[in-house]
Structures are given as structure tokens and as C-alpha cells.
Amino acid sequence: MAKRVSASNVSAYYGGFKAIENINLTVEPKTVTALIGPSGCGKSTFLRSINRMHEVLPGARVEGSLTIDDQDIYDRDVDVTAVRRTIGMVFQRPNPFPTMSIFENVVAGLKLNGVRKKSILEDAAEKALRSANLWDEVKDRLGKPGAGLSGGQQQRLCIARTIAVEPQVVLMDEPCSALDPISTLAIEDLMFQLKDKFTIIIVTHNMQQAARVSDRTAFFSIEKTGDPGRLIEYDNTQKIFSNPSVKKTEDYITGRFG
Amino acid sequence: MGETPHRSADAGTGGTRVTQSHEWPAGASARVAEAPVSTRSPGGNGLGGGGALPRSRKFGAERAFRGLTLAAGTAVLVIIAAIAIFLIAKAVPALRANTENFWSYEGWSPNETQPKFGIGTLAFGTVLSSALALLMAVPVALGIALYLSHYAPRRLGTALGFLVDLLAAVPSVVFGLWGRDIFINPVRDFSVWLNEYFGWIPIFGGDGPFGKSIMLGALVLAIMVLPIITSLSREVFLQTPTANEEAALALGATRWEMLRTAVLPYGRPGIIAAVMLGLGRALGETIALALTLGITFGISFNLIQNGGNTIAANIANAFGEANETGRGALIASGLVLFTITLIVNITARAIIYRRREFTESAA
Predict the structure, then answer these.
(1) CB–CB contact A84 B241 (8 Å)
(2) Could you point out which of A142, A177, B327, B336 has its C-alpha 20 to 30 Å from the C-alpha of B141?
(3) Are A222 and A41 in contact (CB under 8 A)?
(4) What are chain A's domains?
């Protein structure tokens, strides 16, 4: 259920602008990896490169090689929709489909995969909502609009929607930045449970969050505005936050920079 | 404090302000101490400054504007009521004079001494031609709109969108003349072909002549309503939140699946509104149909034989030589047309209203 993600010499561009340069890192299965760094350092760009969402933007492209369990996801023969089904994504702002009910939201991905049988969909929805710790709150109103939930519930709904298709890897792009502390805690707890099944990569601006939830932490940074982002240090979270080997990392996590 | 600039100018009058300011309770004295040379009158307290709150104004721009908007709102109701009363007053005498059943009689001779006219054929022709026009226009319009909003490169999309809007600016009489004199030829050939191979289907049956038919009228109508539906739905599609599109893509949707999952449902109320506006135009279209239809009175589903008529086209054709009763009869037909469009609009509203729970939270 969980796969290893490896990036080697990954660079990403927006038109002529190089956003990240030569990123090399390997994420082990069933771990939580946090990407931290100042704004504009390319951590979100890198995250979006992992499930080929980067190329959705006009003029955006990726160089280098990204593999999941030794399969190159940028290979010419690889179906991009299959990549995104294998590598799910949760976005910064909760984005349930506004026209769909809670139930329809959760099974949207399954329906895209051609699952039509009601009993299968119902089972999958319950399982996903339970995994996302949302089942008890919504089980009596599955037919109500997903957009009618609170922000934190919406984000857990989006997580349920993502894990309902049973991906190998779950990417989270600042999933708590639009949420209050209690909802944030709920989602952090959830990440802890989810890493039993999935490989999780999370972008966060909140260093305490990175320290709390992740096993490994990657620190990205830029020299100055307009320069491409680079991976500065990648190590066990404990090491990064207690005894980083690069001075720049230490400056960042102690708040002297960024 | 805001009044500093006034100080030098009014330096000489400082003394008098102090006595005036005694009228202010509370913060006023402190104010005076800070800026004894203030030129402000007690009522015009500085923005957020100290002192008592000024009294609300009884008359002013706020109230005047409120009155104006109220008047404008009322005027709409008055005008609608006036039109309705006028139409009914004119129509009732003609309907009384009618010697045949207004609903079922197939024909329109209100100018004779024994007036005979029926709305059935006209109403049928109106609904049939508009429905056919929408049937042809809506899929094409939505296709164009989706292409312009989600497939075409941005520049091309903008340029093509502009062209589509230009199409909406062509006057309907031009469409009518073009349909009557030029477009009729391919339509006639196509009708003959349809009749030869599909004549066993009643709608394509008949022995001719072909050409000035419901099909020609509906095709011209379809081209006329295409731009309005296209341009409105394109706007709606462009408003789909990027977050929703990305959510669909991230679930592994192809481009078309993304459109089906995120864009089309989100735009549904907008699409319905666009289609209804197009239908409104089609139902009320006058001169283009007066020029392209065969103008017969009879209820027939045959699409390719010369024939067909609509309420609006009939009004345009018959108003010139109508007498008092004839005009009343035409006005009565106008009332029926009004009712049809009203029903169409109410239906559309009902459809949108039923899904409000989902669309309101989308905003």
C-alpha cells in the first residue's frame, strides 16, 4: 500500500523561471516526511512535481527523474491519471466539490475509476470517512453538501476523498494552514494513523508541526528572490531540529532567518 | 488631530471657540485644551475624534438615494401592470368577437366580419421552432464554451470569444434575409435528401415543396441564440474555482472527467440561465422567422415541408393590414406568448432553486 518515492536531479520551471534545482531525496514507505523552508523556496512546487500536478499550469515543466518504487512517473508511456491516482494530494485550502454531497465527494475518485455499484461505494465511503476520523460527525448527513461542513471537517473530507481511492502516497500541501488549532490537531493525529498505510509527504510552514508529525524533514531554501530553490538538508526530524549539520538550517529553525 | 492645518489660519479667533465648545459634554473640554484654535463647528466633529456623537441627519444623500431606488423599483411594477392592463383591455373585445374557439381553431382571419382566429397553431409553431433551435444550439454552444474556457490556448480563446460575441451583434433581420435567400438552398437540398431516405419517419415525410420550413427557421434561430448561450456559459465555466479543478485532476481525472466532475456541475445554474435566455430570445424572435418560415396555419410535426408559423412572426406579418379586431387578436396572441415565456422562466427558476443548498455554499 505504500511506496518509496525517489527524486534525482529534479528541476521544475514556470515558463522561463526555474523554481527548484537539482533536488535529490528519497522518501521511505510508511513514513511522514515534512518539507519546510521559507516562502518561495519551491517546496510546494516540488510536492506538486511528485504527482505531476505541476505541469497542469501553462508553461510549467519538470526535468530530472522521479520514481515510485523504481518506476519513473515522468516516463513517456506512463498515464498521468494513473500517477495521480497512485499519488493522492490534499490541498492548502479545503476544496470539496461544492455541488456534491458529503457522500458524493468521498466517492468522487472511485466513480472516476468506473466504480458504479452502490454497495461498494457505500463501504468505501464509510471506510475512508472512518480513516479520516470524520465518520461519526457526518454519518447522519451524508446527503448534505460537503461545502456545508466546518473548515476542519472539510479538510478531513478532502483527506477522506483522497484516501478513498487507496493511493500509495499522500501529498499534503500545507493542509492545516487554513484551520484553527483544534482542527489542526485532529489532522495531525490523523497523519499519525495514516502513515501505517501510506507514505506521507507534507509541506508546512509550521515548524512545530513538522517536528510533531514527521519522521524525516527536508529543509529547502533560496539564496535570494528569483533564484531557484534548493534542498539544503534532509535528515531525521529529530536531528534537524536538535543538531542540524548545515548552518543555514539552524538559522532557519531557530528563527534567525526566513 | 486632524485640524492642525487650520491652526495658523485661525490663530486670531482662538478665544471665541472656547465658549462655543461648552455645549459639548464629556471629551469636548479636553479637545479644546489640545486645539483651542479649531475651526470645526460642534456638529462636524473630526473623523473618530473626541466629543459627543453627532446626531443622525434627517435629510441627506443617503435618504435621497434610498427614495430614488425605491421609486425605480416601483416604476418596474407600475410599467408591468400598465402593460398587462393595456394588453388585456385590447385583447378582450377581440376575443369576444371571435366566432371560433381561440385555443383550437386552426387559422387566423380576424379581420373579416365574422372574425375567426385560433392561437393553437401559432403557439405550437413557436414552441416547436424554439425547442428545435435549442436542441441544436445548446450542445454546440456548450462545446464551444468548454473549448474556449478549458482547451484553447488563452489568447486563441479570447480572440474566438470576441468573434462569438460579434455574432450576437448581427441584427436579426440580416439573419432572416440570409436565411431566406442563401441558407435556404443547402437546407432545401438537405431536406430533399432527408425526404428521399428518411421519408418513412413522419417528421421528414411529405411531398414538398421543401425549404421554407420549420427546419430552416429553427436552424437560423439556432445560429442566432448560439452566441448568447456560448458567451454566458463560457463566463460561468471560467469562474469554476481552480481549487476544484485541481481536486478533480489530483484524483486522477482526465481533462474531460475534470470538466464533468468539477466544471459542469458548478456551472449548472449558469448553464440553465444561459439556455433560458437563449430560449427567451428564440421564443420572441420575430423578423428572422417571419422571413424564413412558410407561414401556414396548421399543426404539423413535419420539419422539412414549407410551412410553420410563430406568434411573433404572425404579429409582424399581420399587423400591417389588421383592423381593430385584428389588432386585438394579435395582442391576445402576444399575451399567450408572454405567458409561455413566463412559464419557461418560472420553470428555470424552480430548477435552480431546488439545488440552492449546493450552489449557495459554492459561493
Answers:
(1) no
(2) B336
(3) yes
(4) 5-98+167-253 (3.40.50.300)
